[in-house]
Design goal:
The chain contains 13 helices and 14 strands.
């Protein structure tokens, strides 16, 4: 019995998603498979991928140009929340999944499909992100995940595909699993599975090694309006152009590499390598601008509670959750005064904030200075310290009297 009549399949052109096409039709009785490849600025020519899907048996092969939407509606909100999973990973890959889920659901509704499908295995994070995103957007649509059930090894999948004319890669297969979009690259598997193995230089594509980076620093001034980056060096840029520009400059100076052991949603630890030059720089600049424009209580609360939770929700596939929606409202309220310019110095693998300014700045030089212009009332400090430390004083006195 068919699990579905018509299916929209998230398609990358790789072995697994290509094999999914004949597998869905032959093993699960699907009559029509429509593929959807999302252009998220990964720099690939998608026409051959589109043609390959048709050759593999798809009745229609769709390509969605979603780069602008990806940056504007997914990356920029994450930047406002300073989203770094486990305080390191800027979610460059994770942010793409809710958008792809949205595109799948929209395509299914447009073409009258009764199911959507993906090629994720049962071990990774993406299956969670796709399934939860799709369910949140359309809880009634079926979700098919052949690779989670077929039990084939990579070699088995290639052999299965060859039965239907799906050619295996001609060149020697890379041991690495790589995902790329405009925001960055994720690299895993192969020799990288040994946490003690230093990543070889060959795996990087967006960033230079520190050795090869320029011997002179370079500066960029990034301007934000209500938390959203809008200009570089005083020149207004579209979201895609802005990210592209910062990727180029930061990557050229060796900025943006991450090597970490992260905790996957399914409970295992994995060694992940990331390149995300622009995203890391924008989060650093934005966080610094918040320090200048937000009050201390808002800054501390947002970083300790909102930003960390926001990051985890994205990583765990809960972009469309009620809690994420509520946090968005909080974040947007905090961003009303986060406008200004941050100056970044790039040099030998480092991106350092060296200046910042804002019309909403809460920095008062007359209060901060130690010079003659000092307007701070030093005499008020003694009374403040007495009241501030009163509970500690009482505790110390009681403890001392009890202990004799």
């Amino acid at each position: 019995m068919s699990r579905a009549e018509k299916v929209v399949l998230a398609y990358s052109g790789g072995v697994d998603t290509s094999v999914c096409i004949p597998y869905l039709k032959k093993e699960w009785g699907v009559k029509e498979v429509i593929t959807l490849a999302a252009d998220l600025g990964q720099g690939e020519e998608l026409a051959p991928i589109q043609a390959k899907a048709l050759k593999c048996g798809a009745v229609e092969s769709l390509v969605a140009d979603a780069t602008e939407e990806f940056v504007k509606n997914y990356a920029f909100p994450a930047i406002k929340a300073n989203a770094l999973y486990e305080n390191r990973y800027p979610l460059s890959t994770a942010l793409a999944r809710p958008l792809i889920a949205k595109l799948l659901v929209e395509a299914a509704e447009k073409y009258g499909a009764d199911a959507v499908a993906h090629g994720c295995t049962g071990k990774g994070n993406d299956q969670v992100r796709f399934d939860l995103g799709i369910t949140a957007l359309n809880p009634n649509i079926k979700i098919l995940a052949p690779a989670r059930e077929w039990g084939m090894s990579r070699e088995d999948a290639i052999a299965y595909g060859e039965q239907f004319g799906i050619e295996a890669p001609v060149k020697k297969s890379s041991p690495y699993s790589i995902d790329r979009n405009l925001l960055g690259r994720s690299i895993e598997a192969g020799p990288l599975e040994d946490p003690m193995t230093e990543p070889p230089e060959e795996i990087y594509a967006m960033t230079k090694s520190v050795v090869d980076a320029p011997n002179e620093p370079e500066y960029l001034e990034i301007t934000f309006e209500q938390g959203t980056p809008v200009a570089v060096n005083g020149i207004a840029l579209s979201p895609v152009a802005l990210v592209t520009k910062i990727n180029e400059v930061a990557g050229n100076h060796g900025v943006g590499r991450i090597d970490m052991i992260e905790n996957r949603v399914v409970g295992i630890k994995s060694r992940e390598i990331y390149e995300a030059p622009a995203l890391l720089v924008l989060i650093k600049a934005h966080e610094d601008l918040e320090s200048l424009t937000l009050t201390s209580d808002v800054t501390h609360y947002k970083r300790a509670h909102i930003d960390e939770t926001y990051s985890r929700l994205i990583y765990e596939g809960l972009w469309y959750s009620p809690l994420k929606n509520a946090l968005d409202a909080f974040v947007e309220e905090t961003q009303k005064r986060v406008s200004g310019t941050v100056r970044i110095k790039f040099f030998k693998g480092n991106a350092t904030v060296v200046g910042r300014k804002s019309e909403y700045s809460l920095y008062d030089s007359d209060l901060s200075t130690y010079g003659e212009e000092d307007q701070f009332d030093h005499k008020a400090a003694e009374g403040f310290i007495y009241v501030w430390g009163l509970s500690t004083r009482v505790w110390a006195e009681k403890t001392r009297s009890i202990n004799g």
